[in-house]
Specification:
FAD/NAD(P)-binding domain; six-stranded mixed beta sheet; six-stranded antiparallel beta sheet
């Protein structure tokens, strides 16, 4: 049996390789790192997480991404298995020790007899064979140029930003306190998973002024793109209105200052644990394109972070993705070269979970093809099916933008209340239907 070749050992490529091998099909996984690096990656490990350490909500009853977690676990997903093994307290979210996580994914792939990991860059589009391109938003210039030449169109692009990481022992806990929003979580550790830094109105206003005035990274001449709304730099949010951050990542609701329980904070900055040791915390939602010197000055204005020591400052980079509704069919194949599938963030999904999920599906489809079969996508009543439907035809090609999984992608339910008041009934109905339909799809394989 001829092997399936995968370009890129990120979350999508790693998950695809795992699914293919589990189906009994050999895999060759090509990864250019560490010989050819990117500005964002630090290692040559598979499934390295570069922006955040969070897979977001793990609620598979009331949240679409939590439902996607459930579907990936049900499909024996490697990424979710390792995330569960190395999870950190994070309230209702699934956060992981990023180094331990990627090392474990790498070890699992290396231990699988049907998977061969081959170092080196692949820059040309293969003419034959069964291939998956899972190179992510940081696809090498050479390969990206060949993709553009093949598709006859420029890849779309947006700018994505990295949040800073703080050394925990430099946070002033006489000012900050530990608490998850609304005390969410089943254990005491989960209910205390976040460090919260409160701001008065005067402190918030001064912070906004400094944020708006700070030196920002300049784009190169002729380089233009739009931001993805789910990952906006904080200064861009602030430019949209002085109160925007207070209703976004700095919202104070659901939090009570344990030092001053009678005093309601005007705004709150949250930090989330970034490793198992609890020595590193990332500033939640604080992606930024400020220059490094400006970042330290502005972030040290946050009460509790006045003496902060930064393990990593924020950054900004260009993310490229395909106009998938135009270029890909519903089997994730490039219409002009059906021997090539795409998977992960390069397809126009946004987020670690979504990228890995598309890798899971592309891997199963490629394995089915290798065995002489055809695997249809899951019904779009499921989280994975809704996501794939969006990127391969459900979205408007002219205005196509990266998308997180959300209930807005699911087909409507009959006899269930619409609007905000109906969510308590509607969301569980979505996930119950999705679970049933996903199990049916898996059983049919």
């Amino acid at each position: 049996m001829q092997p399936v070749h995968i370009i890129g050992a990120g979350l999508a490529g790693s998950e695809a390789a795992w699914q293919i091998a589990r189906a009994g099909v050999p895999v060759v996984l090509h990864e250019m790192r560490p010989a050819v690096g990117t500005f964002a990656h630090k290692t040559g490990d598979c499934a390295e997480m570069v922006c955040s350490n969070s897979f977001r909500s793990d609620d598979d009853e009331m949240n679409a991404v939590g439902q996607l977690h459930w579907e990936m676990r049900t499909a024996d997903g490697l990424i979710m298995a390792m995330a569960d093994r190395y999870r950190l307290p994070a309230g209702g979210a699934l956060a992981v020790d990023r180094d331990a996580f990627s090392q474990a994914v790498t070890a699992a792939l290396q231990a699988e007899p049907l998977i061969q990991i081959v170092p080196g860059e692949i820059s040309d589009l293969p003419d034959e064979g069964n291939w998956i391109i899972a190179t992510g938003p940081l696809t090498s210039d050479a390969l990206a140029a060949n993709i553009r030449a093949e598709t006859g169109t420029e890849a779309l692009a947006f700018f994505d930003a990295i949040a800073p990481i703080v050394h925990a022992d430099s946070i002033d806990m006489s000012v900050a306190w530990e608490q998850s929003r609304y005390d969410k979580g089943e254990t005491e550790a989960e209910r205390r998973a976040y460090i919260n830094c409160p701001m008065t109105k005067a402190e918030y206003e001064a912070f906004i002024d400094a944020l708006l005035a700070a030196d920002k990274t300049e784009f190169r001449e002729g380089e233009t793109a739009g931001y993805f709304d789910g990952c906006l730099p904080i200064e861009v949010m602030a430019e949209r209105g002085r109160e925007t951050l207070r209703f976004g990542p700095m919202k104070p609701i659901g939090l009570t200052n344990s030092h001053k329980p009678e005093e309601k904070a005007y705004a709150v900055v949250q930090l989330r644990r970034d490793n198992a040791l609890g020595t590193l915390y990332n500033i939640v939602g604080f992606q930024t394109k400020m220059k490094y010197g400006a970042q330290t000055d502005v972030f040290r204005m946050i009460p509790g972070l006045q003496d902060a020591s930064f393990a990593r400052l924020g950054g900004i980079h260009r993310n490229s993705f395909l106009n998938s509704p135009t270029l890909l069919d519903d089997r994730m194949r490039l219409r002009s070269r059906p021997n090539i599938r795409f998977a992960g963030q390069v397809t126009g999904v946004e987020g670690y979970v979504e990228s890995a999920a598309i890798g899971l599906l592309a891997g199963r489809m490629a394995a089915a093809q290798a065995q002489g079969n055809d695997l249809p996508p899951p019904p779009y009543t499921t989280a994975l099916g809704a996501l794939v439907n969006h990127i391969t035809g459900g979205a408007e090609a002219k205005t196509f933008q990266p998308m997180n999984v959300n209930f807005g992608l699911f087909p409507p339910l009959e006899d269930v209340k619409s609007g905000r008041r109906g969510r308590k009934d509607r969301y569980p109905a979505y996930t119950q239907r999705a679970k049933h339909d996903f199990r049916t799809w898996l059983t049919a394989q």
